[in-house]
């Protein structure tokens, strides 16, 4: 008798045995059907050993209640007397609600768990075929399938079979089920069966002999006519048989479904015929197949139907699989496939995804398959469709390190075991780790984690996922270093040929040179070599993720040669997480940034400073440049210092642009390309303005000391005045002076001209730093006119002679350096010209249109594709800028927002003022930003300016990556550019030409 207020001893025992609902369990143990079992301590111990004792007890009660009264005694006595049976049955009931439901519906099926002979431990296809032999229709097939599945699950949860054996048994059961389903279909359609030979080829996890509890079973069907049959009719008959087989397995009946049969891996996928002849399959694979299709064929295995035809199919496609690594597009295809495919996973689920999430099962499977494709062409020991067998073969052959392979094997087994137990619970196809505490507890206990199941499960899961996340470093790259550094005696190493093949598959165009660089970087026992060996596996992965891995590796070697003995450099890369990835992105994205860095490698420190990639403002830069000029001994030294600052800031700007465009593991790419363009334009304009200010100060100081005899200012024009400079832009300027009080005008003019000549000379002196070219061709009278004019001279010229194109050019005028007051007075002088009162007259509008049309016909370079020229082509920069500038000149007098030198700002103001509809404004803005980015990309990639896409495939691929396209999508980039600019040109025709 239990004292009121105190728990019964049974309640306490149930708690100790792992029950979470002891009260409910007590109630269940009191049902009459369990009277023979309730006091048996052996039963309680067995329940306590299951993944979920409460679930196991509920299932047991249902099963006992379902037994006919005449047989209940036999069941209970067997349960109490036979420990192996008890452990198997309760183990299943505590892990799978779905199989408990099956036993409640088919209460005699417990008998399938009683046998415990050696042959029962690891059954194969023959034993499963025997278990399904009596199935004559879809319903009886499902019952027999579940009975076989019950035995597999029992061996699994009791530990009699390990993960690999369980997965193999599930694949063998699927094979037997496909055979049984085909037999049922043939019996139903004997005429069709007589017309054709049909082979069923298992693909995916079934083909690889590593199936899950609940998974699509991927297949390919091959058909041939029976002797004397017409081929067309035979293939139709085979298609009907194949369709019937799929329905038998996939359709939902009173006994549920088995699993979907998926034939979408066939040639042309769901758009292709369900059944093809062998010759039709081969014709497709030889001509049209993509790399991923050969990767899928790695696992092809004949499982049902005509065994001879199935063997012929595998024999025929196998050589094609092992030649895939020699295909023309193998490298870009691999780069494309290697990029994480998590875009389609809802954000809330990414962290719970066992299969596709970061550090998931797909990562291991893909990496192993890629290495098989690369090295399997010369090593038949790697030709296995089973992931764990292939991983072991890769380790045995020295293609991956043994310790790494062992760690990865352990991680893969744990993650697959998690997946199995999650699916087993309700027999549903899922790869999501549950969130519910009770589900996590059952999952943890099912994996043997009993002290604190939820915490231990999360810890182990995260640990193994972290191992997998580092697998590219471990599997792909570390063996390359072992091959060249030779630091682990006794390890089987990659041969030079195998190392070269791997580097080639990972995108390196010159594997021999890459191996030489690796040897130089990783060999030896110095601290530098040791740190670089740690860094290189990760860096190699980042380089391989770029359009030019060779350039990245070569650049890293050069930077390391220059800075390797500097303690802070290696410490920066080792300790500052972002620095190494930033460096890898910058070194492998093109020529400009590495060239700038290698002229002064210490600038690499910028990449490790969280604030290092932010552009410095113009005031800050001008202050630094003028201070450096003040410290210099002569003008050359002064401008060399100013140009050094410019080089460093160009590197900062280019690095920030590349990192923002590519994104990193921690920071996704900048989603707004317009923001990237604006940042580059502003930053390059600011650093060029500061450099010109420094050159002006140096030129004045060298001859006149602190003060020039005339006031002097530099007016930015074109992109310089618009704060829209690209990396390769010249600085368009006007030079304005005004004699100081009491100074003769001719003396002032001579001084101003000498200053300009000296500035231009100093900024172009050959040095290690990029020159800054100053272009004054937009001055009055162009190249024929004087290089420098006084403010009065400008005033007189503009009053008497100014042409409409000069007024248009002045829309971009903005003071950049020199005397600020003089600069502001020049702007006051030209404002009435660029924003004429009451707008432009019709004659002026016609003249601007005539000039634009003439420019289009005369200035486009001969042979250039007008649809792809970023500056002068259709819908390019010139089209958009002239359209915006015409709006500024017509309406700037009335709309203050239009009085700006910046194109995008003026376009936004025109839209706000109702001068251009929203869609048209967006179209022009998109085209202008895209064309500007193309020009920036060409300069970053080639190291020299250009207005058209590069012709070299690797350079073109690098431009595509900068613009946000994945590997292999260069054609899409060019098509998109043409589409965007074609739409912009239509807007220009309407707004500019009035069409």
What does this structure look like?
It is a single chain. With 995 residues, this protein is mostly helical. Helix content is 61%, strand content 5%. Strands 1, 2, 3, 4 and 5 form a five-stranded mixed sheet that branches. Strands 6, 7, 8, 9 and 10 form a five-stranded mixed sheet that branches. α21 crosses α23 (453-469), α27 crosses α30 (577-587) and α28 packs across α30 (577-587). The longest helix is centred in the last third of the chain and has 32 residues, at 673-704.
Tally of DSSP β-strands: 10
Strand content: 5-15%
Kindly state the percentage of residues in helix: 55-70%
The unreliable regions are: 1-6
- Biggest sheet features: 5 strands, mixed
pLDDT averaged residue by residue: 92
Enumerate how many helices there are, as a single number.
Answer: 45
The end-to-end distance, rounded to whole angstroms, is 101 Å
Structural class designation: mainly alpha
């Amino acid at each position: 008798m239990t004292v009121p207020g105190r728990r019964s001893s049974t309640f306490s025992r149930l708690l100790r045995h792992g029950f979470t609902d002891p009260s409910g369990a007590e109630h269940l143990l009191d049902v009459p059907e369990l009277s023979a079992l309730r006091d048996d301590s052996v039963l309680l111990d067995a329940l306590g050993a299951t993944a979920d004792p409460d679930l196991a007890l509920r299932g047991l009660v249902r099963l006992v209640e379902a037994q006919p009264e005449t047989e209940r005694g036999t069941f209970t006595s067997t349960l109490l007397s036979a420990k192996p049976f008890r452990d198997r049955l309760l183990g299943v009931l505590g892990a799978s609600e779905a199989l408990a439901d099956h036993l409640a519906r088919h209460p005699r099926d417990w008998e399938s768990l009683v046998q415990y002979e050696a042959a029962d431990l690891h059954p194969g296809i023959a034993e499963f075929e025997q278990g399904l032999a009596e199935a004559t229709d879809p319903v009886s097939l499902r019952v027999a399938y579940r009975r076989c599945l019950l035995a597999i699950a029992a061996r699994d949860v009791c530990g009699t079979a390990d993960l690999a054996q369980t997965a193999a048994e599930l694949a063998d059961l699927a094979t037997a089920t496909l055979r049984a389903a085909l037999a049922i279909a043939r019996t139903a359609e004997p005429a069709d069966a007589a017309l054709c030979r049909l082979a069923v080829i298992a693909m995916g996890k079934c083909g690889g002999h590593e199936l899950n509890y609940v998974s699509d079973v991927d297949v390919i069907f091959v058909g041939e006519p029976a002797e004397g049959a017409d081929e067309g009719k035979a293939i139709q008959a085979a298609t009907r048989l194949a369709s019937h087989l799929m329905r038998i397995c996939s359709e939902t009946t009173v006994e549920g479904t088995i699993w979907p049969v998926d034939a979408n891996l066939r040639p042309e996928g769901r758009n292709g015929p369900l059944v093809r002849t062998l010759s039709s399959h081969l014709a497709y694979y030889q001509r049209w197949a993509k790399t991923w299709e050969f990767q899928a064929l790695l696992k092809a295995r004949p499982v049902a139907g005509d065994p001879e035809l199935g063997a012929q199919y595998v024999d025929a496609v196998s050589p094609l699989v092992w030649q895939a690594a020699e295909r023309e597009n193998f490298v870009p295809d691999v780069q494309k496939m290697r990029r994480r495919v998590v875009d389609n996973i809802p954000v809330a689920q990414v962290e719970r995804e066992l299969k596709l999430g970061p550090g998931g099962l797909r990562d291991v499977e893909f990496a192993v398959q890629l290495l098989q494709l690369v090295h399997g062409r010369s090593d038949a020991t790697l030709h296995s469709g089973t992931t764990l067998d292939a991983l072991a073969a890769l380790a045995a052959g020295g293609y991956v390190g043994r310790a790494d392979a062992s760690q990865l094997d352990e991680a893969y087994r744990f993650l697959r075991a998690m997946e199995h137990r999650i699916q087993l619970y309700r027999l549903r196809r899922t790869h999501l780790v549950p969130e519910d505490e009770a589900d996590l507890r059952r999952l943890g206990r099912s994996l043997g984690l009993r002290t604190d199941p939820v915490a231990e499960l999360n810890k182990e899961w995260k640990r193994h996922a972290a191992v997998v996340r580092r697998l590219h470093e471990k599997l792909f790259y570390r063996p390359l270093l072992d091959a060249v550094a030779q630091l682990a005696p006794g390890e089987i190493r990659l041969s030079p040929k195998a190392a070269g093949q791997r580097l080639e598959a990972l995108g390196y165009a010159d594997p021999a040179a890459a191996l030489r660089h690796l040897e130089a970087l990783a060999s030896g026992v110095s601290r530098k070599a040791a740190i670089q060996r740690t860094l290189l596996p990760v860096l190699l992965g980042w380089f391989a993720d770029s359009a030019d891995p060779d350039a990245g590796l070569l650049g890293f070697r050069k930077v390391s040669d220059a800075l390797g003995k500097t303690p802070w450099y290696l410490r920066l890369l080792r300790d500052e997480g972002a620095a190494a990835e930033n460096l890898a992105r910058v070194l492998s994205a093109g020529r400009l940034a590495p060239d700038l860095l290698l002229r002064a490698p210490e600038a690499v420190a910028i990449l490790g400073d969280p604030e290092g990639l932010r552009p410095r403002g113009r005031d800050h830069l001008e202050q630094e440049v003028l201070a450096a000029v003040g410290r210099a001994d002569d003008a050359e030294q002064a401008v060399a210092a100013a140009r050094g600052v410019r080089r460093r800031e160009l590197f900062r700007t280019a690095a920030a642009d590349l990192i923002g465009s590519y994104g990193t593991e921690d920071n996704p790419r900048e989603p707004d390309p317009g923001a990237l363009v604006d940042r580059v334009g502003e930053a390059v304009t600011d650093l060029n303005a500061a450099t010109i200010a420094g050159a002006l100060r140096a030129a004045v100081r060298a001859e006149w000391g602190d003060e020039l005899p005339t006031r002097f200012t530099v007016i930015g024009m074109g992109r310089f005045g618009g704060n829209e400079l690209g990396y390769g832009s010249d600085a368009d300027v006007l030079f304005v002076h005004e004699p100081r009080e009491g100074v003769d005008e001719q003396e002032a003019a001579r001084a101003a001209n000498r200053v300009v000549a000296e500035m231009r000379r100093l900024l172009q002196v050959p040095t290690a730093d990029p020159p800054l070219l100053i272009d004054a061709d937009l001055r009055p009278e162009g190249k024929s006119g004087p290089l420098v004019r006084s403010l009065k001279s400008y005033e007189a010229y503009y009053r008497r002679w100014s042409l409409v194109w000069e007024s248009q050019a002045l829309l971009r005028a903005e003071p950049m350096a020199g005397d600020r007051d003089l600069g502001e007075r020049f702007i006051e002088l030209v404002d009435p010209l660029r924003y004429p009162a009451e707008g432009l007259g019709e004659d002026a509008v016609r003249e601007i249109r005539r000039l634009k049309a003439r420019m289009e016909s005369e200035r486009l370079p001969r042979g250039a594709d007008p649809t792809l020229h970023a500056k002068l082509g259709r819908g390019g920069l010139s089209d958009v800028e002239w359209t915006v500038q015409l709006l500024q000149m017509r309406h700037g007098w009335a709309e203050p927002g239009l009085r700006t030198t910046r194109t995008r700002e003026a376009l936004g103001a025109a839209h706000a003022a109702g001068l251009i509809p929203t869609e048209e404004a967006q179209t022009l803005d998109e085209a202008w930003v895209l064309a500007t980015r193309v020009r920036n990309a060409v300069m970053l990639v080639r190291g020299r300016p250009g207005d058209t896409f590069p012709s070299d495939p690797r350079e073109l691929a690098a431009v595509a990556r900068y613009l946000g396209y994945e590997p292999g999508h260069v054609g899409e980039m060019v098509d998109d550019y043409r589409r965007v600019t074609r739409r912009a040109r239509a807007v220009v025709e309407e707004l500019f030409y009035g069409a």
